[in-house]
Amino acid sequence: MTTTLLEDFLSGETDRVLHATWQVLGSRDPDLVDPLVPHVARIRKATEKLNLGGLIRPNSANVEFALAKLEHRANRSCWCEDYPGPEHRDPRKEEDAGNIRILSTSEPGWSMTYECECTICGRIYDVEQGDYHVMWWRWRPRGVKRPKS
Ligand SMILES: [Zn+2]
Known about the structure:
This protein is an alpha+beta fold. The chain has two domains: about 1-75, no CATH class; about 85-140, no CATH class. It is built from six helices and four strands. The chain has helices spanning about 1-10, 15-25, 30-35, 40-45, 60-75, 90-95, and strands at about 100-105, 110-120, 125-130, 135-140. Bound molecules: zinc ion.
């Protein structure tokens, strides 16, 4: 299956490249993701010239985001490193999946904020929920360490 995902990424065919992209973006399974990590440069080279289409935003941005996720794995970063990206994940679904805990929220409504904690590394994220044609969420890590002066 993993061989197939790599083959999909390198196939030069839009449907197969996007299939592999969504597989990577939707997975936290090391068996699926990690075998692709050594091939980031190859995949980038094979996909950067493709016209992958896309309506709201170009699909090439999704491919790039999948590659960023593989690079996070290469750096042994936590899965939560991917939250600030363009995926706009719903914090309630992430909590249902056991990936985060929602520590607090503002007054519930269309526009509201969530305080979330990664269940793996304990990092805190401030999540802003907004509604512009579709509902979206912006994740910002808190406590990014600043150098002491
Ligand atoms: Zn984390």
